[in-house]
């Protein structure tokens, strides 16, 4: 069956595990690629030396294509781009920055480039920069979000028919039925973060995974709008940021709170009191930590079941 994302990435199933600081290491990335999807190593929390190690380990663990996510606002981004080129990785997913910066350089070196966008303007900018596809990420997503706070459902519909490069949907997706919905809205693949962050193979700390699994409706919210809107799990660190913001904290004051290794402390070392916990809204739907293999079989089963359910919908109900 033809699928343009599978063709571009040379994969079997158009499911991508998003690059995630402190969660998506070589083990998660290679496990996803071994299931026929595309695993990404999240370079956002890696120095160039550490990234090299992860690329080497990933190559040892899979002979399938895998990619790297490089957030462009990161201090190491330029050096990490050079590492991606040195190791001839299959694809780089850039995010949080200007897609014109490195796209041509990567493409000149035979590397595919996919840029994460959260609005129409950046989607067109990514297309004009020569990107092979875009990830359309709604603000339900874990991690950093767009300032416009556009939901995945609206973003996909907004983009439909506007681009001549394919769209990968992201934000809030944890089931096969949602994958089908995204496909019906014009996406050709999906990028999933939160669900893979809780997987057995994720390098996130067990305390972090359990906190996500035990969270319920309304337990994540978007804060840090002055800097870069970030979806956080409620808790001590969340309260600290919220209080500072309610008192009108400046960008500099907020930077002081977040720039002290808080994401590593929370997500990688499991300090739920002092650490920053980034996770998507769909955290409330996840009730257990599954292996990557279990996640793929669940998503595939649900996707097929959703097709069967379509037949039971009354197409004359609305019109
Ligand atoms: C813990 C965590 C860390 C993340 N870190 C990054 C990152 O470093 N770079 C990036 O582009 N996206 C990052 N994301 C976003 C994911 O790559 C993905 O697009 C998003 O999680 C999809 O939405 P979902 O969480 O609802 O599945 C992160 C997401 C999570 C949950």
| Average of pLDDT | 96
Largest sheet, in brief, is: 8 strands, parallel, barrel
| Overall structural domain count | 2
Strand residues, percent: 15-25%
Present as ligands are:
flavin mononucleotide
Just give the CATH class of the largest domain: Alpha Beta
The coarse overall form would be: globular
Q: Number of helix segments?
A: 14
Short synopsis of the structure:
By secondary structure, the protein is an alpha/beta fold. About 40% of the residues lie in helices and about 15% in strands.
Task: Provide key terms for this protein.
TIM Barrel; alpha/beta
Question: What do these coordinates show?
Answer:
By secondary structure, this protein is α/β, with parallel strands linked by helices. It folds into two domains: 224 residues, TIM Barrel (Alpha-Beta Barrel); 68 residues, no CATH class. 41% of the residues lie in helices and 15% in strands. Strand 1, helix 2 and strand 2 form a beta-alpha-beta unit. Helix 2 runs parallel beside helix 3. The longest helix has 21 residues. The chain is globular, with a radius of gyration of 19 Å. The structure holds flavin mononucleotide (FMN). Flavin mononucleotide binds next to strand 3, strand 9 and helix 9.
């Amino acid at each position: 069956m033809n699928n343009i994302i599978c063709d571009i990435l040379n994969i079997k199933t158009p499911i991508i595990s998003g690059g995630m600081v402190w969660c998506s290491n070589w083990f998660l990335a290679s496990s996803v690629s071994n299931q026929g999807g595309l695993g990404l190593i999240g370079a956002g929390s890696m120095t160039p030396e550490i990234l090299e190690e992860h690329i080497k380990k990933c190559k040892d663990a899979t002979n399938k294509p895998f990619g790297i996510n490089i957030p462009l606002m990161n201090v190491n981004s330029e050096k990490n781009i050079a590492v991606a080129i040195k190791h001839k990785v299959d694809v780089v997913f850039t995010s949080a920055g200007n897609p014109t910066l490195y796209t041509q350089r990567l493409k000149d070196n035979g590397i595919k480039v996919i840029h994460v966008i959260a609005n129409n303007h950046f989607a067109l900018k990514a297309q004009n920069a020569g990107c092979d596809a875009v990830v359309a990420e709604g603000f339900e997503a874990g991690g950093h979000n767009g300032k416009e706070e556009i939901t995945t459902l609206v973003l996909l519909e907004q983009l439909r028919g506007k681009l001549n490069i394919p769209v990968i949907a992201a934000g809030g997706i944890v089931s096969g039925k949602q994958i089908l919905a995204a496909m019906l809205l014009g996406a050709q693949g999906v990028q999933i973060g939160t669900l893979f962050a809780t997987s057995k193979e994720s390098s996130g700390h067990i305390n972090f995974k359990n906190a996500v699994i035990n969270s319920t409706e309304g337990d994540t919210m978007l804060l840090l709008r002055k800097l870069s809107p970030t979806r956080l799990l409620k808790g001590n660190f969340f309260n600290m940021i919220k209080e500072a913001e309610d008192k009108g904290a400046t960008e500099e004051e907020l930077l002081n709170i977040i720039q002290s290794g808080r994401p590593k402390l929370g997500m990688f070392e499991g300090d739920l009191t002092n650490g920053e916990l980034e996770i998507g809204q769909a955290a409330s739907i996840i009730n257990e930590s599954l292996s990557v293999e279990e996640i793929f079989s669940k998503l595939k089963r649900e996707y097929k079941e959703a097709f069967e359910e379509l037949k039971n919908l009354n197409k004359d109900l609305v019109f």
